[in-house]
Amino acid sequence: MSCPLGRRPAQRSTQQGTNRAGCFGGGDERGQVATAWVAAQELHAIYRCRDRDHAAARLYDWTVFCIDSRVAELGRLARTLTTWRAEFLAYFTTGRISNGPTEAVNLLIKKILRVGHGFRNFAIYRVDIWPD
Predict the structure, then answer these.
(1) Per-residue pLDDT tens for 9-61?
(2) How many CB atoms lie within 10 A of CB 29?
(3) Degrees (nearest 5) of the Cα angle 77, 79, 61?
(4) Quick one: which of 46, 106, 53 has its CA closest to 77?
(5) DSSP E strands: which ranges in the chain?
(6) I need a labelling partner for 93 at 20 to 30 A (CA). Which of 28, 78, 127, 128 fits?
(7) 10 Å Cβ neighbour count for 14?
(8) CB 66 within 8 A of CB 39
(9) Contact of 47 with 59, CB cutoff 8 Å
(10) How close are the terminal C-alpha atoms of the chain, in Å?
């Protein structure tokens, strides 16, 4: 059986939602994987908010949930998003525009340059391409 965790709630069928519980069972005695999955789904839901104020309220609730979960990685993520709160919420005031695609292309270009020149180590790549 394939695990339906990769699909957001709106994309899952009832059967897939029922089968989801089986994906969390093994090796997750403290429920950390299930908690992280819920946090990820809630973060996706914030991006679907209709305006900045609604998103800000949901982001606050999400942050509290992550910190209260006692999952170290979620707490760290919550602190990071709190630090970048203004930038995160700017998505809702800029017509839902993001520089994510630009950053992805820039990272791909850097990777191609690094691999294309045979550099496996970024420090050597930086010294040879961009000397100080």
Answers:
(1) 555 555 555 456 566 666 777 888 889 999 999 999 999 999 999 999 999 99
(2) 7
(3) 85
(4) 46
(5) none
(6) 78
(7) 7
(8) yes
(9) no
(10) 54
Q: What is the mean pLDDT of the chain?
A: 80
Determine contact, residues 37/74, Cβ cutoff 8 Å.
Answer: no
CA 40 to chain centre: 7
Q: How far apart are alpha carbons 71 and 63 in whole angstroms?
A: 12
pLDDT at residue 5 in the model: 42
Buried b (16+ CB within 10 A) or exposed e, 88-118: bbebbeeeeeeeeeeeeeeeeeeeeebeeee
Side chain identity at 59, as an amino acid letter?
A: L
Contacts of residues 1-7 at CB distance under 8 Å and 24 or more positions apart, as own/partner, are 5/37
> Which pTM was predicted?
0.63
Which structure tokens are listed for 119? Answer: 């550099």
Query: Given a cut of 60, is residue 131 above it in pLDDT?
Result: no
Take residue 2 and report the two structure tokens written for it: 């394939």
